[in-house]
Structure prediction request, 351 residues.
Amino acid sequence: MRVIRIFTIVLALVSSSPVFAQGPPPAQVVVAMVGQEEIAENRSFLGVLFYDRKSHVSSEVSGLIKKVEVREGDRVKKGDPLLSLDTEILDKDILLSRTRVEQIDLRIQQAGKNFERRKNIFTKDGISEKDYEDARYTWQDYVKEKQAAEIVLAILQIRKNKSIITAPFDGVILNKNVDSGDWVQQGKELFTLGAADGLVVRVPISETVLQFVTQGEKVSVVITAFDKELTGTIDDFDPTADEKTKNVFLKVRIPHQTKVAENMSASVFVPTSPKRKLAIIPRDALIKFQGKDFVYTVKEDKAAILPVNIVTYLGNRIGADNPYFVAGMPVVVEGNERLRPDQPVVIAGEN
Prediction:
């Protein structure tokens, strides 16, 4: 009994000690300050990706395909070869035509010398006018014949140049309709090329929203497949609304992306109201609790939790209309996932 009593006394003394009574140390957090801006509310609309600038590449000449240089999905630069036609026979025709030009050039030289000789003799009344005119005609005829032969050679050279089909602009191969060994007819569509700078999200919006949309305005876009957020630019809208729903199709231009395909889905955050003053809060400050959004602020060195009514998304920030958010108010952006209401905190830094 005496041992138990002594142990009880010791335990009581230790329990009453200030060191033992002290709780866990304050949590260290990093905060950012709430801002305030004139911002419009927005909401997400689902659209699809497409290329609004396309080229249906075809051939100006007929021929047998020697080699196809690209596949569907390949990125190409302007001037890159897409395919080449067999030019074996054409090369022989070019060689023959070039030889023909050289032959005629020799005849011109000979006829020119003959004409000069007859011209000198004619001035001395040594030959008849007919002989003089015949010599001049022969020389001039060969000159014209050479010009015609050079035109034929140039045409053959153009045909050879056009036997290599190149990309008309930077872009991506959306469709390939031919392969090596195919015979190409003049004008046949070979490839569909989407312009690298022509990637657009086509998104239907209510006609009543159109009044809040400004051409050139920056908006947030999320590509569904990769949950990737980026910034798009409101470009234009289709001039014809949907006959049944009266929706207008908005075009939002986005930067060139890899590993995307036409008709993939993307969400666009479109303005839906006039601009008004909103509290601007970093997204890193947001935490979820029972499906709702909250942030932690610091009051009297303790964590205080506040609900957030998000009315607009601004990339890595959000706009909220809760009246208790004021400019310069601190919100926790690092360490908030471990906090509890009224937990002591120490501000270790500020973003």
In short: Residues 6-21 have pLDDT under 50 and may be disordered.
